[in-house]
Specification:
single chain; about 400 residues; alpha+beta; FAD/NAD(P)-binding domain; Enolase-like, domain 1; 22 strands
Length: about 400
């Protein structure tokens, strides 16, 4: 869906490179049909892989009934095992406390809407809310994002947060800060969304994107003795073991780092621990992350705010520029690159990117930071020209310094 939404801007850019583009039109139904076909194909491949490797597939809901037993609800059969792994993931928060929440959709529902909404209100400002805001805006929807705080992407570097919001606003996304939803009413086929600031927004759809909850309700875990924390997340130790020695949990159900590659990593560590006599703890440090907003975000390591709390002195290298690919079309969109360095050692503790292919760059930067790269290592690396990424190895002088928590220009 991200790829689909990018074509609107690519078509706009084409004349700058000499292309004459005729009449164009976007068909939502075609996108959804093709998406469904691809998901079915992938699901079939995963299922075939499991069956080929000898896994028995049981298509039924199940409930944990004890430290070593699971009841299959479809048949009533109880299955016993030496080890039980809980990997049921999470689901969007439906905000049952909100009056009229039944008139809203969540992120899962976007993929099966019968038509593209002309107008949509999105409540939330995390990566899921913003990714869908960008997708829908570039496909033609009028998008309003409502957030409780003053800025988007809580937990990310502040420069990244401000930069992404500014570029999204250029693309027509409207932000309403410091407000919450109090009520959603159905008016024919439209939604009337009332905010705490008194505003009433009208839209075809209202999307709730205020986080996700572990899928542990009615799973039987507490009755089986498994400790759960707020929101229903499974409490695990450093080896993914729950409070019941025979029951383990990985992925979003533990609410450690909610990313698919992290869940896979936790599972591989569990295999090493349980079946290869090699106790292995998952490593959640320096996880590279991409946010598929438009512009895209790639980040690894600490934000400036986090680094300033941990280290006495920082050198910050920052660059904001228009990528070459946008110059001929005259697109008014800038790229942000930021490197955060511990001044005493020269160690790079965070890199933050906003712009084309930032996720791809973040993956490779994750290797560098994991190996303990210093700013000198960056400086000694030859640039690949012409690329946007060369900016990372040609920022020779700090843009500013942080000393004892205070910025020094």
């Amino acid at each position: 869906m991200v790829y689909a939404s990018q074509y609107s801007k690519l078509i706009e850019d084409a004349p700058g490179y000499g292309w004459t583009v005729g009449e164009t039109a976007f068909d939502w139904a075609t996108l959804i049909t093709n998406k469904d076909k691809e998901i079915s194909r992938l699901e079939g491949l995963y299922r075939k892989g499991l069956e080929t490797n000898g896994a028995e597939m049981i298509d039924s809901r199940a409930v944990v009934t004890g430290p070593n037993t699971v009841r299959i609800e479809a048949s009533g059969e109880e299955i016993s095992a030496e080890t039980i792994l809980i990997a049921v993931g999470g689901r969007p928060n439906h905000m049952a406390e909100l009056a009229g929440h039944e008139h809203c959709i969540v992120s899962d529902d976007i993929f099966d809407l019968p038509e593209l909404p002309g107008e949509i209100v999105i409540y939330g400002a995390g990566y899921i809310a913003l990714e869908f805001a960008c997708i829908l805006a570039q496909l033609g929807s009028q998008v309003s994002v409502v957030l409780r705080g003053d800025e988007i992407l809580r937990g990310f570097d502040m420069d990244v947060r401000r930069h992404v919001r500014g570029e999204m606003e250029k693309k027509g996304v409207r932000f309403i800060t410091g407000a919450q939803l109090t009520q959603v009413e159905l008016d024919g086929s439209r939604r009337k969304v009332t905010l705490t600031n008194g505003d009433v927004l009208e839209a075809d759809q209202a999307l709730l994107a205020t986080g996700r909850k572990p899928n542990t309700e009615t799973l039987g875990l507490e009755a089986a003795g498994v400790s759960l924390e707020w929101g229903g997340k499974v409490v695990v130790d450093e080896y993914s073991r729950s409070s019941v020695p025979s029951i383990y949990a990985v992925g979003d159900v533990t609410d450690r780092v909610q990313l698919t590659p992290v869940a896979i990593h936790e599972a591989m560590c569990l295999i090493e621990t349980l079946y290869k006599d090699n106790p292995t703890m998952p490593d959640h440090e320096l996880v590279a992350t991409a946010v598929f907003t438009q512009p895209e975000v790639g980040t690894v390591g600490m934000s400036e705010e986090e680094a300033a709390e941990m280290y006495r002195d920082l050198d910050v290298y920052r660059s904001e520029f228009r990528p070459m690919k946008y110059i001929l079309p005259g697109r008014d969109e800038k790229m942000l690159m930021k490197i955060i360095v511990e001044a005493a050692t020269g160690k790079v503790v965070g890199v933050h990117l906003v712009g084309p292919d930032s996720g791809e760059m973040a993956q490779l930067l994750g290797i560098s930071l994991k190996m303990g790269a210093t700013k000198e290592d960056f400086d000694r690396t030859m640039a690949v020209h012409p690329t946007a990424a060369e900016e990372l190895v040609t920022l020779y002088a700090p843009s500013y310094r942080v000393r004892n928590g205070e910025r020094v220009d």
